[in-house]
Amino acid sequence: MDYKNFVGGHWLETPDGVPNINPSDVSDILGYAANADAAQLDQAIDAAHQAAPGWAASTPQQRFDVLDFVGTELLARKAELGRLLSREEGKTLPEGVGEVARAGQIFKFFAGEALRLAGERLASVRPGIDVDVTRSAIGVVGLITPWNFPIAIPAWKIAPALCYGNTVVLKPAELVPGSAHALTEILSRSGLPDGVVNLVMGRGSHIGPQLVESAKVNAISFTGSVPTGRGIAAACGRHLKKVQLEMGGKNPMVVLDDADLDVAVAACLNGAFFSTGQRCTASSRLIVTEAIHDRFVAALTGAMTALNVGNALEDGVQMGPVVDERQLQRNLDYVDIAAKEGGRVLGGERLNRETEGFYMAPALVSETDNGMRINREEVFGPVASVIRVKDYEEALHTANDTEFGLSAGICTTSLKHASDFKARAQAGMVMVNLPTAGVDYHVPFGGTKGSSFGSREQGRYAAEFYTTVKTAYTLP
């Protein structure tokens, strides 16, 4: 299949297609993705710019109808599209189907929000004057999305953008063109005017800077690596352009002596290794107090080694392959670094399966300290390290001792410690007796420190980024 770009209401080809490779079976080529050049990106930006005034003036009913249509179709086709997603990205089939369902729920949520667009009417401090506070669309929004959630992250950026009257240029990750193409194809039939949504696939290093620098793009929402995010922030700052960044994490999970061991192991197994650890909210630092440490490591080791690693589309597989060869080699390098630093590594080797793919055994690195590279740098794979601490205060200090601040968790039966951790953990999201990964679609998503910049994504808080506030005074 050819995955074409969608510009101004039309599907456009490019001369050279990029193969979409199944990480579970590298002989399986799903299709070939368009590879846009500068001229095609400019065409998409122009289309979004021309469509912006008309869509900003659309009615709440028009926006609801579009968003509800997309959400309904995603939910109806979740099995089909989930299989496509798992085939191109490598997460297990239940995870792929679940992600498509979440994308559908996101569109449904913002369909409802489109009917709840509201402002405020206030009395002025001056007699006889009325004050109206309203929200307006910001215009053209450039969306740059990663490969690890190839339909959910585009959904949670596109849906609020359209809900609040903006037009969109979507630049998805090169590794997962099929999911972005499928979502755009549904949007193309939703009743949107030409140019409101545009899909431009191509190498980020080639067209990403052009999208960020364009004077016709009013805002950028980016999810990806910290270095790229910092570069985007600097560029947007030069142009006084609105920017929203979701970047890396080195998320701690604290396990206290009083924790329910089964609950702690289940939370850490899920947070560290499900979705092949390829989540920015993954539990990568397991901070465990002394009295439970050895029992916890033994129990988690048993649960980890029992995981069924294999082809993402096969029944019973609990962990699929790494997304590509480059990421796999990065993971293996970090496991090697951890061992050389003195960590005790269990697992983490490359695996062979019936089909050639990017398979890796989950890795647990014990006997580490928080100064090691394995605990300072994001790996973005099925690799978790264990840090032994003496008590809750040391655990909290260690959890906060990182440049990141996306998600943090604690396993404890102590209400005192749970309440204190929720208040003092330096993270945008805190979990108690739950995995650090796994969030709802109707509440804010985002972090602190080096993990996030700008206003929150998802839920009603998305309005902060996708709108601008206007205050109007009237003397009747």
Automatic annotation (TrEMBL):
Keywords: Oxidoreductase. The active site is at E246. Pfam families: Aldedh. One of its GO terms (biological process) is gamma-aminobutyric acid catabolic process. SUPFAM superfamilies: ALDH-like (SSF53720). PROSITE patterns: ALDEHYDE_DEHYDR_CYS, ALDEHYDE_DEHYDR_GLU. Residues 17-471 form the Aldehyde dehydrogenase domain. Belongs to the aldehyde dehydrogenase family. This is Dehydrogenase. It comes from Roseibium aquae.
